[in-house]
Amino acid sequence: MNTLTCFSLSITDHVAHLVLNKPEAMNTMHPTFWRELDTVLAHLHQTGTARALVISSTGKHFSAGMALETFGGAITMDDQSPEGRAAIFDLLTDMQATFTRLENLRIPVIMAIHGGCIGGAVDMVTAGCIRYATQDAFFCIQEINIGMVADVGTLQRLPKLVPLGVVKELAYTGRRMPAARAREVGLVNEVFESPAACLEGAMACAREIAGKAPLAVAGSKVMINYARDHTVADGLDYIATWQTGMFQPTDMLETFAAKAEKRLPEFQDLPPRPFGL
Fold first, then answer.
1. Which residues face 133 on adjacent strands?
2. Which of 14, 44, 159, 195 is the most exposed place for a label (fewest CB within 10 A)?
């Protein structure tokens, strides 16, 4: 991978840790952010060596959301022309695709959130699997406060996570939801006293996941996401089809053998994928 400027990435014992590292800019999402996040996700998805991903941040806030320069090129175009409208559409769908890649990553994604999770950052964390937060964390659908509709995933994914009335309240008012309330409605799995404790909680969960059979974990993620968007009957049919082709008896045998021999199981990594998500 090329040198990253908006992030730092490390992989230890099959756990990847991606850190937003532009605290001086409150980790806002400018054009380089999107390019680098795409690169990181493609790398993790293709190599298969990481079995869980933790995303955390630096500075006072997790992220203040979109940087204005992200939209500068499209907004300054002639938005009365078909070409200008098409440019805005392309920009939005490109950003949407990046967070969909995060959602479709072969490995679970755990968010460790502190401080403000604002605007585009809510789009990002709702594409993850598990969200941990600090006591001082808050969530805000900031777009309504600047006269626009949230458009990169919040309004599509948040209703799958929390009651619809809660989504409407946040989307219409732009209020800040504190971590305790986010935990109460199910957006956050657990609340911690400090960023260090939150990160350790996320890493502990990631290490636990990394100790399981990677293909079984990946399959579980696929099935949970599929079940969210389909009927029970469709989900049952899909898991039967998937299991027919993907079930790996050697992982089950290794699990039984490790328990009998009082050791940790050793599993093969996910097979490399030469192409993107």
1. 113, 191
2. 159
- CB burial of 33-59 (b: ≥16 within 10 Å; e: otherwise) equals bbebbbebbbbbbbebebbbbbbbbbb
Q: Report CA 110 to chain centroid distance, whole Å.
A: 7
Class of domain 7-210: alpha beta
Q: pLDDT tens digit string along 254-275?
A: 999 999 999 999 999 999 987 6
Q: What is the DSSP letter of 93?
A: H
10: CB partners within 8 A, 6+ apart: 16, 17
What is the spatial distance between Cα 197 and Cα 176, in angstroms, rounded to a whole number? 23
Dump pLDDT digits (tens) for 188-223: 999 999 999 999 999 999 999 999 999 999 999 999
| Tokens (6 digits) for 132 | 């941990």
Give CA separation, 47 vs 9, 102, 271, 274, in Å: 14, 15, 7, 8
Q: What is the DSSP letter of 187?
A: S
| Backbone angle region of 26, left / alpha / beta, with phi > 0 → left and psi within -120 to 50 → alpha | left
Superfamily of domain 214-260: Lyase 2-enoyl-coa Hydratase, Chain  A, domain 2 (1.10.12.10)
Q: Are 113 and 125 in contact (CB under 8 A)?
A: yes
